[in-house]
Each structure stands twice: as structure tokens, then as C-alpha cells.
Amino acid sequence: MPLGLWRRGPTARALAELREDVRQLAAAVHALDQQQAKDAKRMRQLLEERDTRWRKPLDEIERHLKAELKWRTNFSNQLAAVVRRLCLPIDQLDSSAALGARRFHLRSQNEEDGILLELLERAGWGHRRFVEIGSGATGGNAALLAYECGWSGLMIELAPKAAERARVRFAANAATQVLCERVTPENVNVLLERHGYATDVDLLSIDIDSYDYWVFEALRATPRVLMLEYNARFGPDRRVTIPRDQPVAGAPKGYGGASLAALTDLASRKAYRLVVCEDAGVNAFFLREDVAPDIPAVPVGQAFKPLRDRSNFRGGEVTSDIYEEARAAGLPLENV
Questions:
Q1: The domain containing residue 12 runs over which residues?
Q2: CA distances from 193 to 35, 98, 215, 262 (A)
Q3: N vs C: which end of the chain shows fewer Cβ within 10 Å?
Q4: Which residues make beta-bridge pairs with 334?
Q5: 49 and 141: one domain?
Q6: CB-CB contact of 230 with 258 (8 Å)
Q7: What's the number of CA atoms in the CB half-sphere (13 Å) around residue 317?
């Protein structure tokens, strides 16, 4: 067939029609893609509007549930404290069990108040002076002594808003100073000396969730009673801490502080003995060797308490592996 005739023949017309069909199909697909994009955008907008509409009431419900859990736990613990006081033969228990049985919560985070008062009753009240490093807005472990007992004390808190709230909370006790300052191994002794708490301290508490071990190592003050927060997720056996000056911002939850074994070993070198840990697996109590010699030292393995899950009313243990989490995040730990 001549070329000119082919270009005008049925095959050429079929090809032209096919090209037109393909063009129209491509246009339809493009239009469909645009419509799908618009539909997806509208769907996202509707979901965002729904989330915005429901977020506030859902947040409010969650807030009320957390408050209910908190007060239910507090009530249960307080009732248990009364039952222990009335029913347990505390005088017949060994020393550590007897101290633990006195636990109750009034102003402390967990049930440290009762143990602290029992220790002071047995060790003597001394000069009635405390230092709380990492007081938060609530006053930390020394809140009971400042608010209820009128002790003189120094509270040190890094966060300005929390420090201001602590000043308001303890304003009625003119003998309590609240200092907004970052405590480091380099400045801890300077701060205590500057504010008159380098000596004659009856209670010193450290709770800064980071380089607690190194602040304690640098500390020159020799309080009669020590309360140190330990990281129970490190377990009872290893003597481990985060390295000195190691940043913790952005680290997995639980990466901070030191193990009970590490703190107890350091305390022993400073002439302190471990006597009890409170039941939530957060704070350990130490006595200076010359204080209340009738209260014996307790081995770490016996005193250690695992960390309780605060989101669980029944107080289940936190079981995640902090060593694996630290390795996965490339965060160092130091054996001491």
C-alpha cells in the first residue's frame, strides 16, 4: 500500500483514535489523582477537627483518671500504714523490717516520711537542720521536716518555676531557704558553705536524677542521716552510674543516677551504712557510723527494692532492660 494511502487508511485512523483514547485516559487518571489528593486532604482536615473536638474532653478524662489513681493509691497506702502500726509486732521484727513497717506518706513522694521520723526518733533530732538537693516544688524528702516540724533547711532546685512554688509552699517557715541553682560536683560544697550548711546537718537528701553519684562523691558535709535516690532499674548487683557530666536530655526514661550497690559502696568509704530502702524502690537511707549504733547495716541484696510502676495501682514492677536501652541509644554507663 502506498505510504500516503496508509496514512489516510483505516489503520491510521485506528491509531489516531487509540492515541486520543490514551490521552483522554491519562487526563482522567490525572483528574482522579487530583480528586483523591483533595479527598485525602479533606479527610485529614476532618480527622484533625475530630481530634481537636475530642482532645480536650479526652485529656480531661485522662487527668481525672490519673488523679483518681493517685488518691486511691494514697488512701490504700495510708490505710495499710495504720494497720501496720496497730497490728504488727514491730518490736519483735529485725531492724530493717521494723523501719520499713513504720513507713507512711504525709508530704514525701512515696512513704519516706514514716521511715525518716522513725530513724530520727531512734537516732536523735540533733540540730534540726537539713539540706535537700533536688527539692522540686514539693520540698522533696525534707518537706515534712520543713512544713510540719519547723526545721531550718536549705532546698536547692534547678527549675525556676518549681523553686518559686517551693518558696510559696514553705513561706511560713522563715528558717527554710529555697535556692534556684544547678548543683554539680564542682559547686556543691561552695553552695553549702555559702548558705551555712557545710556542718551540723542532720539530714541531707540528693535527688537530681542524673549525676547523683558524683555529687555525693564530691560532698564534704557529713550529715547524720543520708537519703539517696538510687536507680533500681540497674538492679541490686552491679556498681554502676552514668558518667560524670553525662547529659541526660533526650535519653531513655530511667537513664540516670546510680545503682544501690554503687551508692552503698561509696557511702561505706565515707563512713556511712545502709539501713533500709523504702518500698517503692526509689530512696535508700544511710546512717553515719557513729549515729544510732543499735541500728545495724543491711546488705544491698536484702535492702534493695525493685522500682514500682506508678501507672499500676497494684504496684507492679518496672521490668524493661535499661542496659539494653542504653546500648541501643549509644549511651555510656560507668562501673565504679
A1: 3-58
A2: 72, 36, 15, 27
A3: N
A4: 241
A5: no
A6: yes
A7: 11
